[in-house]
Fold these 2 entries.
Entry 1:
Amino acid sequence: MNIILFGPPGSGKGTQAINLVKIFKLHKIATGDLLREEIKNKTVLGNKIKSIIDKGLLVSDEIINGLIKKVIFNKEINNHLIFDGYPRNLAQAKELDLMLKKNNKKISCVLSLNVDKESVIKRILGRQICTNCRKIFNEYFNPSTKDNHSCDIRFLQKRSDDNEKTILNRFETYLQKTLPILNFYKEQNLLHQINGKAKIDEISKEIRDIIASIET
Ligand code: AMP
């Protein structure tokens, strides 16, 4: 089973991916996380990537394909994948199909989390990520508390691209480059539309039901 989590920035893909990884023992491939790792290493490539991310643009397909190839050809995980933030344009979607085909694998379903622009902006402005356990919180809608989070609050951080100007560019990039992929998957009957404004638990349940219906 290989799943794509699709949706605009801030639609909750990362939060749902964390749940699904646990429940279905999947391996998460989040290209944004892979890129941020590269930035952390302060390489020449990392600095180049940072300037693109901070502008709200897409990193080149060449760089992304290089990162994906490193994980996708690992035989132990290559039929238990959950993609978060990838593919982000039609060329990447087609390249992903080709790479999976080489291993006789395919995408099982595409889960599209639908959230409007105003809501994603509010969500992104409040987003906090725990650098210790990787859990995602929102200081307004889903704050870290003693009940839902055991790490020290000093681990909570904001992303450098989670500012108002970059968010608007990221949303525009999503509309222009990423949203058109939906038709590609719709034509293959792989697309499931989900109300991404529902409660986190309700969305998780809907996703679990979809996956159960595919597995049987
Ligand atoms: P994310 O963590 O998914 O929100 O991604 C953060 C940023 O990384 C995006 O705004 C892009 O600049 C870049 N990025 C992540 N995934 C991709 C991808 N598949 N293709 C191109 N750029 C990407």
Entry 2:
Amino acid sequence: MAPRPTVWLDMDPGIDDSWAIAVALSRCSVQGISTVAGNVALEHTFQNTHDVLQVLNHSEIPVFPGADGPLLEPLITAKAFHGEQGLGDYVADASHIPAILADTPRVWSRWAQHSTGVSDTHLIATGPLTNLAIGFLAFPELRSAWKSITAMCGALPGTEMDKAKEFNVYVDPHAADVVFRYGARVQMLGINVAHKALVPIRDLSLLPQYGKTGRMLAKMLNFYTIEARGEGGNPDAFPIDDVVAVAAVSYPEIFQWRELPLTVVREGPLRGTVVISPIDVQRPAVKVALDIEVPEFLAWLWESMETYRA
Ligand code: BDR
Ligand code: CA
């Protein structure tokens, strides 16, 4: 297991994103969180991130707003899975959001200017990749600024799930393509692997042990599982894709990877499909997840939750 990696989370909370925040705080040093429109509008993903951090007693972590919609397409949300405001049935205590003027790509650029060479920070992206794409286009020095970039998006080309099934790449296919084109040390954790790491429904009964964090997640997951249950092919279990992305950085030994140059179908009926890019020699290889050891993942997940035991 990686010794407590330093990470930055770029995300659209979102219910599995929220669980990913909790697990990342347990396993990693979280430098900051940037938010993007995706599961719900930016105003909610930004607010939700603050609300979740407050419950986790980590309001000191800086949160930044990013893009309020995809590069070129209108925003599509996932309210069926995440609820009208993004956290299902969870209603936060009244919280205060400090006014923040800087937006995410500019914040990253200032950070990159102050670091020398490749940083020790791993970026974990669990929403549409719009912030990252804007960052790469506006501030080219960001393209190789992170030690790794793990994106929960897409599916391994050639698998039965690879046709326009994954939300983050479908919502902003142009952004995903920019990331595959320009990003250094990119890892793609697709739903072909994330949907193997299913949580049995009966495990929800473990949550009350974990104090207010457990109660918050239980409220969210009661809503989420109405839609997500069965998504990975097992009616008695549900996927938590964004948490698996944290595992890919914290516990990479339980994954198998393969390097492939990738591109994304951006228009038409196959929009959002990730394909191998054989003719574009300029494309860097992306490390694509092939498989995961599921029992080890589930043990890691619940051990991560021990941080919150009441
Ligand atoms: C992705 O879509 C979103 O709804 C989830 O938060 C996750 O990031 C899975 O396709
Ligand atoms: Ca997400």
